[in-house]
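Intended use. Records like the one below are meant for learning the mapping from a protein sequence to its folded structure. Do not use them to infer anything beyond what is encoded.
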Amino acid sequence: MTDIDRTYTQQQADSYDQIRFESNGGRWTHENELGIIKQPMNDLPPQANVLEVGCGTGRLLIELARDGHIVHGIDPSKWMLDVLRDKFNASSIDVECHEARAETIPYPDGKFDYVFAIRVISLAMTEENLDRWMGEMFRVLKPGGKCLVGMLAYYRLRYRPTPRTVMNIRPHALHEIARHHGGDLNWFRGGFFFGLPLYLKLPPVAVRMLGPVDGVLSRLLPFLANQNYALYGSREAGSQDESKSSP
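Structure written out for the chain above:
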């Protein structure tokens, strides 16, 4: 655990979706991020067992549940989980969620086909914490399953100083940690070249104009994008980690 409390209060949880994802820019961000998260589902069973680490209000989980997947979530904020439960109950959709942190995921080994964490990994603060969080995600992942993590890009264009509560993670360091826990990199991409704060301030016409440009720049210059997304595949039982094999 870190010494920084990042759990949301009731007031913050109640307004979270409205502030971030109900504007034109917020909806555009949500739809694009959802597309990234759904991409690995093409290689998974039709009713995949899915876990989101840091699920918040469930804005992403509920979309996967509507596609027929079995969804689970953990989050350290009781209030965020209350919003999530209300959202799922209103839609008559099942979800299992727990008040828990990334370093102690309350599920058995090898339970999930797909584990993802968005806007969470950069909060690890130290590589020791990051190693522990990634180890837990791969522990609960089935052999052959997929693990997707989103993080603030290390080399991104910075318009303001990085908050001291956010960890700047080099991609190669993340890949090494994933490999140590049995994950092989499938793909690495950029997303949201200009970042969510800018889109929240733009009028609808500007969002429509800037969106396609953002997509092109994120593909061409992934390391300079505001967000990076890395997808790892969990090795099948008995496969050898080349990084640990003898020369």
